[in-house]
Amino acid sequence: MKLEINNVSKRFKDKTAVNQFSMELEIGQCVGLIGPNGAGKSTLIKIIADILHSDEGEVLLDGKRISKMKREIGYLPQYPNFFQWMTARETLLFMGQLSGISKKRLIEDIPTILAKVGLTGEQNRKVRTFSGGMKQRLGIAQALLHKPSLIVMDEPVSALDPIGRREVLNLIQEIKKETTILLSTHILSDAEEICERFVIIKDGTKIEDTTMTELISRNHEPVVYVEIAPKDHSWIQLVDQLPYVKKTEMMGSKVKITLENIDVHKNMLIQNALDNDVDIVRFEVSGNDTLEEIFLKLVVSA
Ligand code: ADP
Ligand code: MG
């Protein structure tokens, strides 16, 4: 499976919702499409799901136009529309048949899918009585009905309370093991937990395509803060002499240690402390910005 989005643009009257957007997604990836409200996420996702047509550019799945590959894509809309009076099972039967799956196959497959999204015990309850998290899990079940190789989810957790959010995030973690995922959100921390890669969109334009590790290391000083027992303070002189330590500074009871490379050297530093029998009270890897701050900076300044 490979998804290619090539120079896609979409205008609504004089508003450019998506502007020359390109990206590729490989099998097994889980990518977060992140951007503030109005950035163009839903428009782009509808184009990928072939619900909306782009003005320019194309979306290809395994080299073929998306309109020919629809059954390979599962789509969870931002606001799924269910009939409140149907039960969960009836909803899946109805929606599955609408998307062209035979009733026979649906009757075979629905129990497995209900089990996957954790709704087996609720299959005969009416959707009206469902919590937000349960509705969203039913929406995901619907998107999985035709066993797509790619699932696109538009803000799957944004509208949920903390319990619903947890239910759906856990479910996405499971689905991720077998399906390629593209999900949108305006809350970075939602994607942070499940996606390895982030594509940031602002005013319809892609402004960033990066990974969590890259984002953190780019924006953070290679600094650790260490607090040690007073009896071990002489260790700091030793640390100062280490080839990978650039600088040490006392900051109250903590020492701020600037390293050459945080990923490689922080563990060497811990090892050195252990080798010298140093009593570590606190070891903190941190820099200037939280991810949320990095995201805000990107979205506001770019
Ligand atoms: P997001 O999902 O990131 O919040 P959308 O894709 O929904 O953003 O919207 C992107 C921009 O396009 C917004 O300015 C929105 O008002 C506009 N837009 C979206 N759909 C329509 C539409 N059907 N008609 C007119 N403008 C639209
Ligand atoms: Mg949206």
From TrEMBL:
Which keywords describe this protein according to UniProt?
ATP-binding, Nucleotide-binding, Transport
Q: Where is the ABC transporter domain?
A: 3-228
Instruction: Spell out the coiled coil positions from the record.
Output: none
Q: One Pfam family from the UniProt entry?
A: ABC_tran
Entry's PANTHER family? ABC TRANSPORTER RELATED, ABC TRANSPORTER, ATP-BINDING PROTEIN
Per its record, what are the GO molecular function terms?
ATP binding; ATP hydrolysis activity
| Family, as annotated | Belongs to the ABC transporter superfamily.
Q: Which organism is it from?
A: Psychrobacillus vulpis
Q: Does the keyword Transport apply?
A: yes
Q: What is this protein called?
A: ABC transporter ATP-binding protein
